[in-house]
User: Which sequence fits this backbone?
């Protein structure tokens, strides 16, 4: 019997949806619904686990043995990922560290501002006014308490500044260094000011790739973009990069063909071709 | 590898602690998870592609994705279940990039599965040659014929959905539906105590 031809059974039940989700065969909307269910419903989660165990048993997954050197090669890639300073994980760690020390920073700032505030009052206020202020230190402490929040907010700001610094065009040397540490991948999103700069970047040996789709995937992952769509699937690209120009994120690809090399500029969100130019 | 606990899905107490530490930036905890699951992930990918090279690429992509996204693991499901899906997704992505489908298998003396007539005995022969545990064999026998064939082709033989659809003379969507319903039904049969949820209980995912 064809289940799809039977109206009674055409709608997927929860078990089928869970199995389809496990099989990565659900669309984004359905996956999001399933994930919400899994967070909220322990029985659904247990059911999914049971399906996963059943599949593992059917597939007898203990039969395959990774090839020699698999773990070493994986470790090398993970090491490169860890050493790249601008991965989402690195950014998260930076924020975590800042948040960890934020209370101390807040107290330190409070003390500093209070001391400076009192000092300033004593220095610049007319003696009489200073005396009128009476509990001047206390009043100075009030705005200090407000600004004492600044380091808390500033902890994120500092993390953001670091991100911006990592993204900022510190010069080609910085980019080269990241390339080396990142296993041949650009770890930041560099700002560019013109076509010539885009072309120069794409012509650098570090930007060349034999697997443009994989490179785009890496660039997307590192910059926090969604994994799909993949823009370079339809072009024969020999180099791919992600750059920021005038505050706009652009995916650029160097394409070689019968008409000579061309740089194709994509909007990475929807893969629309923004334009094409000769390098 | 070879640890039956992994085959059984592994109770996730240890995993939960490791995942929490790894999500907090503890690379040693992440390495421990890699140690624990590298072979399993590779096996999933090897089964998907049938080639060592692509399996390795996909397995490495799985762990890179895991490294970047481990903090997003929020499910009440086991980490091993989540990782299974991450690995399957990585395989899909690589297959899409390589514009290749999972391997095409031949079941009947060199004839491709796509050319074969539906023939449940051939699949059952293949199944008999596989050392599945008796409870799994018994549960499989309780599935409808087309469902059982689809599940065995998919998981035991490693056929693509396109091959299953061609073999059964149905649309790919129907082949997927048969496989997924078969998985859900098998899980209910094999773990009835754990699965006390009514299959038709309020459709919270249909909201």
Assistant:
């Amino acid at each position: 019997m064809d289940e799809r031809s039977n109206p009674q059974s055409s709608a997927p039940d929860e078990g089928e949806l869970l199995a389809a989700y496990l099989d990565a065969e659900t669309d984004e909307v359905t996956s999001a619904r399933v994930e919400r269910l899994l967070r909220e419903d322990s029985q659904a989660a247990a059911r999914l686990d049971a399906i996963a165990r059943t599949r593992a048993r059917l597939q007898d997954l203990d039969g395959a043995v990774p090839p020699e050197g698999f773990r070493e090669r994986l470790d090398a890639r993970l090491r490169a990922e860890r050493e790249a300073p601008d991965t989402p994980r690195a950014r998260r760690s930076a924020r975590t560290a800042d948040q960890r020390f934020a209370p101390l920073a807040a107290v330190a700032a409070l003390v500093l501002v209070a001391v400076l505030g009192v000092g300033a009052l004593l220095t610049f206020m007319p003696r009489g006014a200073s005396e009128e202020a009476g509990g001047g230190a206390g009043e100075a402490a009030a705005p200090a308490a407000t600004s004492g929040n600044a380091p808390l907010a500033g902890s994120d700001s500092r993390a953001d500044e670091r991100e911006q610094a990592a993204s900022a065009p510190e010069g080609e040397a910085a980019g080269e260094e990241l390339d080396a540490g990142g296993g041949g991948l650009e770890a930041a999103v560099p700002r560019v000011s013109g076509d010539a700069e885009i072309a120069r970047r794409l012509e650098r040996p570090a930007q060349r790739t034999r697997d443009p789709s994989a490179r785009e995937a890496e660039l997307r992952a590192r910059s926090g973009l969604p994994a799909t769509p993949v823009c370079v699937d339809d072009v024969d690209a020999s180099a791919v990069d992600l750059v920021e120009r005038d505050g706009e994120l652009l995916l650029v690809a160097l394409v070689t063909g019968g008409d000579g090399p061309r740089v194709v500029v994509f909007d990475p969100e929807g893969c629309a071709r923004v334009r094409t130019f000769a390098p | 590898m070879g640890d039956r606990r992994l085959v059984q899905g592994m109770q996730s107490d240890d995993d939960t602690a490791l995942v929490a530490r790894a999500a907090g930036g503890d690379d040693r905890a992440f390495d421990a998870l890699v140690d624990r699951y590298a072979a399993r992930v590779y096996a999933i990918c090897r089964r998907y592609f049938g080639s060592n090279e692509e399996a390795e690429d996909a397995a490495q992509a799985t762990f890179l994705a895991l490294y970047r996204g481990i903090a997003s693991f929020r499910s009440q499901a086991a980490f091993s279940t989540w990782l299974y899906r991450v690995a399957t997704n990585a395989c899909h992505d690589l297959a899409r990039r390589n514009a290749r489908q999972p391997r095409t298998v031949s079941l009947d003396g060199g004839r491709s599965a796509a050319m074969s007539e539906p023939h449940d005995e051939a699949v059952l022969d293949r199944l008999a040659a596989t050392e599945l545990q008796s409870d799994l064999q018994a549960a499989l026998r309780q599935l409808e014929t087309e469902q059982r064939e689809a599940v065995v082709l998919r998981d035991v033989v490693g056929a693509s959905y396109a091959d299953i659809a061609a073999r059964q003379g149905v649309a790919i969507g129907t082949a997927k539906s048969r496989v997924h319903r078969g998985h859900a039904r098998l899980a209910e049969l094999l773990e009835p105590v754990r699965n006390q949820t009514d299959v038709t209980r309020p459709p919270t995912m249909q909201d």
